[in-house]
Specification:
Blueprint (H helix, E strand, L loop, with lengths): L1 H12 L3 H14 L4 H18 L2 H16 L2
Helix pairs in contact: 1-2, 1-3, 2-3, 3-4
């Protein structure tokens, strides 16, 4: 799993946000309560919300960050 988290982070850094979002969705399905997965996915959704001015991605980012604070 750590390699997939790294993959999502690298894709996001490279600007491949759609691919990063798809991978983040898969990670969230596999490990929905994992702190690192949620923080990484939240970062991707936050960037998507900012770039596309999409409140749905912003809401998902906030949920991921909240879960990351509670997660294990």
């Amino acid at each position: 799993m750590p390699a997939f988290v790294l993959l999502v982070a690298v894709l996001a850094d490279l600007g491949r946000l759609d691919t990063a979002r798809e991978e983040a969705d898969l990670l969230l399905e596999a490990k929905p309560r994992n702190r690192i997965v949620n923080a990484t996915a939240g970062r991707v959704y936050s960037e998507l919300a900012r770039r596309r001015r999409d409140p749905a991605h912003g809401a998902k980012a906030r949920r991921c960050f909240a879960e990351a604070r509670r997660g294990r």
